[in-house]
Amino acid sequence: MQRCFSRRLGWVEFSAESVVEFPEGLPAFEDETQFILIERPETSPILFLQSLKTAGLCFLSVPVEVVDSRYEFTLDSEQENRLGTASRQDLLCLALLTVPDSGPPTANLKAPIVIHRHLRKGYQVILNESPYSFTHPLGPASEEVCS
């Protein structure tokens, strides 16, 4: 087992097989190419996307279905090529959460993080032709998740 330090979570153990590669990084964080997904029972269904390079870079995320059980997205051919051939069951689609100092928490459904579960490769995909928002408000049932 390897270990990394997270400012949010402290020392975290992980296996090499749990590392997710982001070949292009994430928008505004292009140099951050390796992350691990951390699940904690006490904060479920929140997943922490922790950078292996920067201890202070840890995104809060949830599977998109937690925010919208009818969530649908279509990848264009370039996005499909980057992720590799995959069925929907091979893909984990996460919405990044924002918890502002004032106002309700929101989820980014317009630009989800899409991870190929078997290849451990991910991208943030911007869904230009979708009805979703970068700041989808979390409803009353979801507010309990963030408390």
What key phrases describe this protein's structure?
single chain; 147 residues; mainly beta; BH3618-like; eight-stranded antiparallel β-sheet; two-stranded antiparallel ribbon; 3 helices; 10 strands; disordered C terminus
Could you characterize the architecture of this molecule?
The chain is mostly beta strands. The chain has helices at 64-67, 77-83, 140-146, and strands at residues 2-6, 10-14, 19-21, 34-39, 47-51, 58-63, 91-98, 106-116, 121-124, 136-137. It has one domain (2-146): BH3618-like. The chain has three helices and ten strands; from the N terminus they run ββββββααββββα. Strands 3, 4, 5, 6, 7, 8, 9 and 10 form an eight-stranded antiparallel beta sheet that branches. A two-stranded antiparallel sheet has the order 1-2. The radius of gyration is 15 Å and the shape is globular.
Spell out the blueprint of helices and strands.
Blueprint: E1 2-6, E2 10-14, E3 19-21, E4 34-39, E5 47-51, E6 58-63, H1 64-67, H2 77-83, E7 91-98, E8 106-116, E9 121-124, E10 136-137, H3 140-146
Antiparallel strand pairs: 1-2, 3-4, 4-5, 5-6, 6-7, 7-8, 8-9, 8-10
Summarize the structure.
The chain is 12% helix and 37% strand. By secondary structure, it is mainly β.
